[in-house]
Amino acid sequence: MKAETARPSSRLSRLPSLTEILALGLPLAAAVGMGAYLVSGLPGGDDAQYARARDDIRALRSVLLFSPRGMPGTEAGLGALVERGEIPFLPQDPWGRPYQYRNPGTEYAYELFSFGPDGVESKDDVIAWNLYGGR
């Protein structure tokens, strides 16, 4: 009786060519690289702090836009949302400062933003109308 020899599976018998590896690998590497750039695209900042600031601004913007009493003016500020019972408290930005609000704004109908890590209006700000790009 003759022993049967195991045959390799047809899927495993052919190794991918260099061209096939490059065709799949280069776009994957580019996608991973672009994702890393987009996540850390803001200058010199801690990604978690910027992410939290963006989340806070999105939440505050939603409350402002859907407020049954309308958007408060600059003088009343975001504190009016707490006084009116629309939010339980006013969060500080991740750098320990209050979020900034102007209504009417200087460039847009209203402006909602964080000064970012440096605490002054500059390119590292997190702004409601451009959450990932700053000023």
Can you describe what's shown?
The chain has 135 residues and is mainly alpha-helical. Strands 1-2-3 form a three-stranded antiparallel β-sheet, covered by helices on one side. The longest helix is centred in the first third of the chain and has 22 residues. About 9% of the residues have low confidence. A hairpin with an 8-residue loop joins strand 1 and strand 2. It has two domains: 25 residues; 81 residues, Glycoprotein, Type 4 Pilin.
Give the secondary structure arrangement, pairings included.
Elements: H1 10-13, H2 18-39, H3 47-65, H4 79-83, E1 100-102, E2 111-114, E3 126-127
Antiparallel strand pairs: 1-2, 2-3
Can I get a quick summary?
The protein has 135 residues and is mainly α. 37% of the residues lie in helices and 7% in strands.
Features:
mainly alpha, 3-stranded antiparallel β-sheet, elongated
Give the name of the CATH superfamily of the largest domain: Glycoprotein, Type 4 Pilin
Residue share in helix:
25-40%
Shape: elongated
Biggest pleated-sheet summary: 3 strands, antiparallel
The figure for the number of domains is 2
Tally of alpha and pi helices: 4
